[in-house]
Amino acid sequence: MKYLILGAGAAGLTFANRLKNIRGEDSFLLLEKNFEAGGLCRSVFKDGTPIDICGGHFLDVRYPHVTKFLFEFMPENEWNKYVRDSRIELSNVTVNSPLEANIWQFPLEEQVEYLDSIAKVGCNSGKKMPEKFVDWIRWKLGDKIADEYMMPYNKKMFGDNLNELGTYWLYKLPSVNFKETLLSCLTKRAYGKQPGHAEFYYPKKFGYGEVWLRMAQNIANHIEYGKNITAIDFNSNTVTTSDYGKYRADKIIVTIPWREFARLDGMPAELVSDIKKLKHTAVQIKYFPENLDAKAQWTYFANPALSYHRIVYQNNINDNWNGYWTETRAERVKGVLHDGKTIFMNDYAYPLNTIEKPKIMERLLDWCRERNVYGLGRWGEHCHHNSDVTVSLAMSLAGKI
Fold this sequence. Notes:
Layout: E1 3-6, H1 10-21, E2 28-32, E3 43-46, E4 49-52, E5 59-60, H2 64-71, E6 79-83, E7 86-90, E8 93-96, H3 108-118, H4 133-141, H5 143-158, H6 178-187, E9 199-203, H7 209-218, E10 223-225, E11 229-233, E12 238-241, E13 246-248, E14 251-254, E15 263-265, H8 269-277, E16 280-288, E17 298-301, E18 310-313, E19 324-329, E20 343-351, H9 357-369, E21 373-375, H10 377-380, H11 387-400
Parallel strand pairs: 1-2, 1-14, 2-10, 7-17, 11-15, 14-21
Antiparallel strand pairs: 3-4, 5-9, 6-9, 7-8, 11-12, 12-13, 16-19, 16-20, 17-18, 18-19
């Protein structure tokens, strides 16, 4: 075929549907390891409540071309639109997110301590920007925010050795301005902008996985499920699966993790070695049917004594739903890892932004493109793209090649 797409998640489904609907292309095939499409965005129902089994996913409103495209498969009237209400729990205090904009919600003594720390922030006093992750966080946000929130929370998310992470992906973090923070505390209101998903869509009657199932239905004759991909031969542009199937294409789109390939025939040994250096986290999703006394749509937990780092409250997404689920990095899980009913394990949750990663991926993707193999999406590019960004990138790539 002309196009062989590895993975039927957000990236692969978007790319394939753009080929069909916009370009009228018919010579393409998707191979999917699971027996259902959706990838990281899959959902299941439990007692009438949808559970996003790979973690909470929401459709950001910031890219009109993305929402317009997805509404072709699941019309806008099947979605609810929300203003984000996310919170952070620190010790016995719960404040709105982002933390640096809501210092005023702490007790007065705590506000003073935060203000004292922010007054000494390195990025506002001309101090040289450090290279190590931990030093960079202190330089950017101050010791108090670093110690109370950023350090413990990021350890729960990514592991204890935070200095193996680079700082290149932290550009979105705002500088904490002392005068603005002081004014916020005096007037008792937030300042600055909301983080990502300031406004978002979520289906009225389904989990987030529904839109991707409908996209898969649109190209049902072009998807083969239960295909565990084991190898790529770059000399012949051939893909091999664990059931000894072989598929050859003019162009191959990789949306699955590069570390999943047992063989990369024809790839230089140094690139194969680089791929082995890529790191990621696994996350367990655990559903509970009872409702908690919470007002937010989700809450972040920095307390190291709590294994989970986030709770998503489905009863606050939809009045007809009940329960909540926790999200916990696999290494912090105690007990049952997976039961397929209320506990789900996502082996590939977040790519780790290690120091070496940008150069590794630049070398890898450049070499592959020269051979008509393209990395796309969170795992094809090993980058923490949300679904809206992934859809946008896939739409763009489908128009270019």
